Amino acid sequence: MYVDRTYYLAPDGRIAASAFAVMRDGLQGKVGIGKLALYGREDLVAVRPKERGIVMHTLHHAAEIRGIDAVDELKDVPTSVKPEEVKLAKQVIGKIAGQKVVAPAVDTPVSVINLMDALKKSLDAVSTKKKSPAKVGVARPATKRKQA
Q1: Are the beta carbons of 9 and 23 closer than 8 angstroms?
Q2: Is residue 85 part of a domain?
Q3: What is the Rg, in whole angstroms, of the alpha carbon atoms belonging to the chain?
Q4: Tally of domains within the chain
């Protein structure tokens, strides 16, 4: 979240290569934090070794990051859920992991359904078709049929 941009650092020619390698190896297991004047402004940066080179990340200051409490849509999300619902959700996720999910086009608004019932139905559907790709079902409103 704090990383803005990433740059690869490299030595400027053969003479600087050995000094660069010494600094890279000296940074193993560490991250250097500092300030850098770049494009007319001062940035907070982190440097760390990566494979044969050094990587530099420009960083955002904490004051530039919007807190999660500022996201109004998350205020209605419950902070805890029933353990049996979590267990069921994990089973569903485990059965469809790595499978392609195909969502059909939706013409009408979806009606609100019971989450626990929907998870059980989804788990039952996946259990019967073990190797077929997972599909997202959409509840449609009931319509009256004409009798002939």
Answers
A1: no
A2: yes
A3: 27
A4: 2
